[in-house]
Amino acid sequence: MADATDSTAQAAAALPAVAATTPEAVKAAEKAAVGVHKKINLAAAPIRTYLEATVVPVMMQGMQALCKERPENPVEFLAYYLLSHNPQPNTKPVPQANGSGDAEMKEGS
User: Fold this and answer.
1) More confident call, 32 vs 5
2) What's the alpha-carbon Rg for the chain, to the nearest Å?
3) Pick from 68, 42, 67, 44: nearest CA to 55
4) What is the Cα–Cα distance from 29 to 23, expressed in whole angstroms?
5) Lowest mean pLDDT among 68-72, 82-86, 101-105
6) Separation between Cα atoms, residue 26 and residue 22, nearest integer Å
7) How many CA atoms are closer than 13 Å to the CA of 93, on its beta-carbon side?
8) CA geometry: angle at 86 spanning 83 and 91, to 5°?
9) Among residues 48, 46, 38, 45, which one has the least CA distance to residue 88?
10) With contact defined as beta carbons under 8 Å apart, do 66 and 81 qualify?
């Protein structure tokens, strides 16, 4: 029986002391872990969940501003709004999927 108690005590001694960490360090580690967990979940999430978590909030704000302003060029206004209110401003822009590429294909034909 003493062997089991000794091995448990040794295992507990090998673990890092959680009480020795500061509350700020614990909060920072928890925030980092939650951020990584959310990114992993969003990457594997269904399309609707992904859009609701990433695009819909800023898109709805942009649509509200669009309805309030009623500019002459609503598409350009919304595009500018989305770019200027991007919650991740340090990300690289994604190349356009269509638009200029179609014109290049027609010119080359």
Assistant:
1) 32
2) 25
3) 42
4) 10
5) 101-105
6) 6
7) 7
8) 90
9) 38
10) yes
Neighbour tally for 62: CB within 10 Å: 19
**How many Cα neighbours within 13 Å face the side chain of 98?**
0
Q: Judge whether 75 and 55 are in contact, CB under 8 Å.
A: no
User: In whole angstroms, what is the distance from residue 51 CA to residue 49 CA?
Assistant: 6
- Both tokens of 8, joined, read 């448990």
- Output the pLDDT for position 63: 96
> Is the pTM above the cut of 0.85?
no
**Which residues, at least 6 apart from 78, have a Cβ–Cβ distance to it below 8 Å?**
62, 63, 66
- Collapsing DSSP states into helix, strand and coil, what is residue 71? coil
- The ranges assigned to domains in the chain are 25-54, 55-86
